[in-house]
Structure to design on (390 residues):
């Protein structure tokens, strides 16, 4: 990919900047600004080069129809305050816009196009729509890694019609993921959780030949417990996965990768219950496994201590209830306190929520705001948005 830092002449150039500003909004207010904050360096870089910026982004899934509840107005307001610049939200139909009219006000440096997903042509990757978007600028910059697994007009097809570059954030994201999957400093450990093992099986298979340890936690681990004949009470699990789990263990053994699962648990009768530490043989039929136990925590912290690189995706328990947050919070703090002794990459909405809750984001080497793109990259897939910039 060609980074924007390599381009010398930006002055008065109209730059189409694709961002992912899809942040949670409640009652018109942004709940989590992380995704926006991460792209500020790219905006400031372009402004320092005297560029004229046309931001393209989206919120939610309006399915190609105008939805006032999914307007980018709250984003515009936040960005104005964040960079202390006037920003105009263009609500005009894109097909009626002309390049020469967008910056008629010479003092204006940034405009924001209204939600690009209001147009069905965006998600259908329409050729003419891509051409129209490209006609509004002279340079295209993609700084939306979290959208780069999508074959959308403003992510892939647009690069056919305009000189295209990668932004600062997307380059940082790819470099961090390459460092944890390709240029690895060993020993390397992956902590992976979530509700469904089937949704992350490709990630696990892709990492097994490269990683020394894979620690399966969260509801995903229930499937392994069940496979090993352990009691799981009424904990959630996926049926008919024995062959898949057996395949994972055989593949891991072949590649000298050790797979760990919790050796004790914290259970409750429901999600709002208090926690009780239990060995597997003590688990009752109406118990739910909602966190790892103290023995498991001790073992995981020991594995982290012996690791030089670490990838973490998925909390260790139902951290939303403080009674079941110990595993996730203690692991997060332990990794954060390792400092330069470990290279740490964290990704996934719930995992990022854990470290945000503790306000320790800056103590990790890299925190990814991407969801699907993060996982697909770890699966070894070539992301369309990245390929389009090559």
């Amino acid at each position: 990919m060609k980074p924007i830092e390599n381009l010398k002449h930006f002055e008065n150039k109209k730059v189409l900047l694709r961002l992912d500003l899809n942040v949670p909004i409640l009652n018109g207010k942004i709940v989590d600004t992380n995704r926006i904050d991460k792209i500020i360096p790219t905006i400031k870089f372009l402004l320092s080069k005297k560029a004229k910026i046309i931001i393209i982004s989206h919120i939610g899934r309006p399915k190609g129809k105008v939805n006032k509840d999914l307007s980018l107005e709250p984003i515009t307001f936040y960005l104005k305050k964040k960079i202390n610049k006037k920003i105009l939200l263009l609500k005009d139909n894109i097909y009626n816009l002309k390049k020469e009219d967008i910056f008629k006000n010479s003092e204006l440096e940034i405009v924001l196009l209204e939600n690009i997903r209001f147009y069905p042509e965006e998600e259908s990757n329409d050729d003419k729509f891509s051409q129209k978007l490209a006609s509004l600028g002279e340079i295209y910059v993609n700084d939306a890694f979290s959208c780069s697994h999508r074959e959308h007009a403003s992510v892939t097809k647009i690069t056919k019609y305009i000189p295209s570059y990668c932004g600062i954030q997307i380059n940082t994201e790819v470099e961090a993921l390459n460092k944890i999957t390709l240029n690895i400093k060993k020993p390397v450990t992956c902590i992976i959780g979530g509700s469904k093992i089937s949704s992350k099986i490709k990630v696990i298979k892709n990492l097994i030949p490269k990683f020394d340890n894979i620690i399966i936690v969260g509801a995903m681990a229930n499937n392994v417990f069940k496979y090993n004949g352990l009691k799981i009470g009424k904990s959630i699990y996926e049926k008919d996965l024995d062959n898949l789990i057996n395949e994972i263990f055989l593949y891991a053994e072949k590649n000298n990768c050790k797979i760990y699962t919790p050796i004790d648990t914290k259970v409750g009768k429901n999600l709002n219950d208090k926690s009780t530490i239990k060995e597997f043989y003590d688990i009752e039929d109406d118990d739910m496994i909602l966190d790892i136990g103290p023995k498991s925590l001790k073992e995981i912290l020991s594995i982290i201590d012996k690791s030089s690189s670490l990838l973490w995706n998925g909390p260790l328990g139902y951290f939303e209830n403080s009674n079941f947050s110990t595993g996730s919070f203690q692991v997060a703090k332990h990794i954060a306190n390792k400092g330069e002794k470990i290279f740490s990459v964290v990704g996934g909405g719930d995992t990022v929520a854990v470290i945000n809750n503790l306000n320790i984001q800056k103590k990790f080497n890299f925190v990814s705001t991407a969801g699907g793109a993060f996982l697909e990259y770890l699966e070894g897939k070539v992301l369309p948005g990245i390929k389009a910039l090559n």
